[in-house]
Amino acid sequence: MTSRIATRFAQLAAEGRQALIPFFTAGHPSRESTVPVMRALARAGADVIEVGVPFSDPMADGPAIQRSSEQALALGVGMADVLQWVSEFRSTDPDTPVVLMGYANPIERMGGAQFIERAAQAGVDGVIVVDYPPEEAAEFAQQARERGIDPIFLLAPTTGPARIDQILSAASGYVYYVSLRGITGGTIDIDDVVSRVSLIKSRTQLPVGVGFGIRDAATASAVARVADAVIIGTRMIQLLEDGPVEEAPSRVGAFISEVRAAIDERPRA
């Protein structure tokens, strides 16, 4: 069974385009805004939507995403809510891939097998579990693939070639290259990204996405010259907070439209 993620990347490759993948935290800035935000992102040109599962100790996330998680948890948002919102989004959008991104604790609290089953039923296409190293997630990853969910893993600037190969052997969907030596929200080094993405792409046929540190259309356009996907998170959270809650979908939709245009206008290197 071909996943929605593989289908979307194949379509983009045929068109000579790169994927745009926005991230935001479910339940932020409000419970009611979650599905409208997802729909606004899809309309604006998002190719995949990464939805953060709120967690109390998000070790890889900077202050903005940490704050969004804390606010969502204060509103009582849990895994069941996230899956329900994905299902609601999927009822009107059968094509845009949805990836859940988060940490092991909420999954293990639900139970890995139950999570995979409920995620598949809701229409989830991929899952990124930041604190699941591939050697400890082999059974989880296999069960996910059997239900049509791609296990997506992270690669860091400090990941050596042997470790890269080990991680790539467990991955599907796409690979998430973390462009910073630290948490989300820092400043990206484009030259370093070019070098590292080239190394990763020489070792896999999977699409390579770059996230952490991409905050505007210009940076996204530069990254899109070498990567298969541009992933934007912190700036999304800031925009969602920057004004009335009821206008949050339109704010992020306008931003993603701008970034989409910038990526599409820039020729591939």
Write a compact overview of the structure shown.
The protein is α/β, with parallel strands linked by helices and 269 residues long.
Regions with little confidence, pLDDT below 50 for 5+ residues: none
| Quaternary form | single chain
Number of strands: 9
Overall pLDDT: 92
Give the biggest beta sheet.
Answer: 9 strands, parallel
Query: Percent helix among the residues?
Result: 40-55%
Task: Describe the global form.
Answer: globular
Question: In DSSP terms, counting alpha (H) and pi (I) runs of 4 or more, how many helices?
Answer: 12
In CATH terms, what is the fold-level topology?
TIM Barrel
How far is it from the N-terminal to the C-terminal residue, by CA?
32 Å
Please name the CATH architecture.
Answer: Alpha-Beta Barrel
Q: Beta-strand level of the residues, as a percent range?
A: 5-15%
CATH-level-4 superfamily name: Aldolase class I
What is the chain-wise order of helices and strands? HEHEHHEHHEHEEHEHEHEHH
Gyration radius over CA: 17 Å
> What is the topology, as strand order, of the major beta sheet?
5-4-3-2-1-9-8-7-6
Count of distinct structural domains: 1
CATH class: Alpha Beta
